[in-house]
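[job 4471] stage=fold_predict status=RUNNING
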Amino acid sequence: MQGDEFAPSRDGARPWAFAALAGSVLGTAIQLQQAALWGWACYAALLIAGMAGLAVLWRFSRRQGPVAQWARAVPLIALIALVLGAAVGAAVAGLRAAATLEDALSPALEGRDLSVVGVVTQMPQRIDGGLRLRLAVESARMADTSQAPVRLPPILLLGWYGDAGFSFGSSSSGSRGTAALLANLANPPHAGERWRMTVRLKAPHGNLNPHGFDYELWLWEQGVRATGYVRTGARDAVPERLGATWQYPIEGARETVRDAIFARVPDARDAGVVAALATGDQSAIDRADWDVFRVTGVAHLMAISGVHVTMFAWLAGAAIAWLWRRSPALMLRWPAQRAALVGGVLSAALYALFSGWGVPSQRTVLMLGTVALLRLSGLRWPWLHVLLCACAAVVAIDPWALTQAGFWLSFVAVGVLFAADSAFNGKVQRSGLGSRAIGLFREQWIVTLALAPLTLLLFHQVSVVGLLANLVAIPWVTLVVTPLSLLGVLAPPLWHAAAAAVGLLGTLLQWLAGLPWASVSLPASPVWAGACGVAGGLLLAMRLPWTVRLQGFVLLLPVLLWQTPRPAADEFELLAADIGQGSAVLVRTATHSLLFDAGPRYSPVSDAGQRVVVPLLRALGERLDAVVLSHRDSDHTGGAAAVLAAQPQAQVLGSSQAGDSPRPVHRCVAGEHWTWDGVHFEFLHPLETDYARTGLTANALSCVLRIGNGRAAALLTGDIERAQEAALVRRTEQNALEADVLLVPHHGSKSSSSQELLDAVHPRIAWAQAGYRNRFGHPAAVVRERYVRSGVDFVDSPRCGAIRWRSEQPRQWLCERDVARRYWHHEVPALDTQRGNSS
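[job 4471] inference complete, writing structure tokens
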């Protein structure tokens, strides 16, 4: 049997089986790239073919004689197993996706008031101005009729606000709004309770931008196929608690512990970290603290991760072994080592369940379980095979885990430690406190070095102080804060000690985060450059001769030196970000950049600048020369503070008054102009005299900016209305307003986009930046039809996502929803008129 590729190795493993496992992961990854799903029959046929092929391989692997000789004559048998495994992985992921797609919300039910009875499946989370609930639907009907029941997706994600569903524009902070809501509720909702409530729903729709967070993918992975809010207006039925159930007991226990922590610990920020480590509720951590954790590279420690689950397994196993050895009867029945192994894994699984069963916890439990089974069976598989089995198991349970940054960071980190560990390379490690300290430093250095390129690839930012911060934070959080947080469940006073430990660590992290060189940002590199960088980091971390390892620096160069391509001289390009109901347009020339508006404020503690614009600028490697704030409305200036904090060198221009911007604003005045790289910029509105007029609204003072190079032009209009449009046409020379691209005034409101303006501008393309099913009804159907009748290509952000246009090709544009289309992305119905029903 020597050389037989079917034969098991001395550790009991069959190479073709591992090839099939690798294929299943590869097939799943390929399926996740589909823009649209195939039919059920296609995936079923693929699954049957793959399983049949693997069954044939398994049967042949158990035969002797001629089959073995045939196997030795087929060197590509592992490739065949890889392909068959890929077919199975792709088919399973496709079938699951098709089943999830069947649960989609009917477009006819969007924006309608529905009476729903359901059970709260998770502990409610505090959000800006209210609560967020996950509801398992039991029954539903139209709220204003007695018609037959309607079919809804099985899981809903709902916001419950204190002001009839809208928290935007509130003058109070989000925490005060949440506190007010809870104070007004006689019986706040809890996990496991059954409620009847009136809700208004919409399809899961999120912003889609280059290099941005895919909210729709996150909802898809959570099984949420509709979002919305609880109706609490004067004419709506009061939400009614129907009673407690025995469902979701673990979530109920998590909620009890979390609320007890906040009740006992006076400092809400420290309590949030303690609650996150004890129960896995990451939303409990303050946003400012998350910013510090990311800059210092310790964010992975502030959520239930593999480190915490492994530590819990080790502590539980040690306690079980100590108790087991105290019983001679138990020792005679089973060795203490095996009891500790099984008990540690089971304890880790319970802890992972209690913490929310997140993907990091899942993969850690699966890996611990795989190692335990191998040890109990006496097999010693290579570490790469163990890692592959755990990876395949996680992907089988959650195919979309492959799209998560944490998945790749965790598996690469574990693989690097395995590959670089002396124990896995036949070398004996020395004992002693000093040697262990050196070993800890070495492991942290290896992981930091190996993961830096991957972190840059995923987040476009890496912490320079991360090594120092983690050297302190890892043992402190793992051995002090987390055990105290968990033991506080049995002895609540220990939560005070855990909070004090968090406070001490926070002081150090705040100091490190304040250093000017604490983190480094680089533009997002293409996949091939990122792959080279990751390979370079791994090569530097491996136990190889330094002559080989130093070649890793060469592989790092594409990531370190990559610059996002810019327009040629005399050319320019626009990128209208998908920021919901608001405006934010990036203008780039060969060496300069301008941001026209900074997006909306979503809530008192969240805005488009922090969530969309700043990450987008970081990914593109942009250094803004100017920020134009067209006028003072919060849907145009809400993200300005975050943008200007990240771009302190940028000049601020606009029509805002004193106090409306975090920095002094240079007024935009008609006639003011400048040239960058052969591209002409000119303000066309407002006039200097307009600032002295009384009674003008902020919209009437919107800055209007025209950008052109003599061959192509764009007109950015803010929120001007018909009166300003007419004045602009009257005082502008013939053809001086013409532009290839028009940013639709006031997001497509009925008060703007007059035919007079369209005739003067004569655009080829019109962009409307608006939110999906926004409460203002933008863009209005009559406005859309006016553009279409004029022969203009009308594009809106709900259907397009981020929109990109280049002056070299003035008749073409790119929609992010077309470029990055995946089957989980919501497609706005073609005839949807965006009725003003906010959801």
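[job 4471] summary: Residues 574-819 form a domain with the Metallo-beta-lactamase; Chain A fold (CATH 3.60.15.10).
[job 4471] exit 0
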